[in-house]
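Backbone description:
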Amino acid sequence: MPAGGLRRRRTNLIGMAADYTPHEVSTLLAEGAIQLIDVRQPHEHDAGRIGGGRLIVLDQLSAEAETIDRSTPVVLYCRSGGRSALATQALEAAGFDAHNMTGGLLAWEAAGLPMEPDGGFVDEP
């Protein structure tokens, strides 16, 4: 982390916020450096999720945006990365430091990272 305890905003070559891999998200979450938001449907979230995050269904994101801490970077995820990419764009447009998790929960599971609850799985939308 840079001097002063502030993370530099990670961007791609055209200045947009960069996506994070599941391993990067795992590390950042363990450090308490991000807010993690699952934008899937409740039945998907109940079937399997990343611990330490919260559920905000994609179609409720605009209504819930003010409940998200603007001072902490936000990482969004879904099943495969498509819905969370849309959510990331929406939050960026609203002034948040928002990032998508590449590959979604499918990539998280493929990387062998832990899910909740025990025996959790990636459900269909």
Observations:
- The radius of gyration is 14 Å.
- The first helix runs from residue 22 to 30.
- Residues 34-115 form a domain with the Oxidized Rhodanese; domain 1 fold (CATH 3.40.250.10).
- The first strand starts at residue 35 and ends at 38.
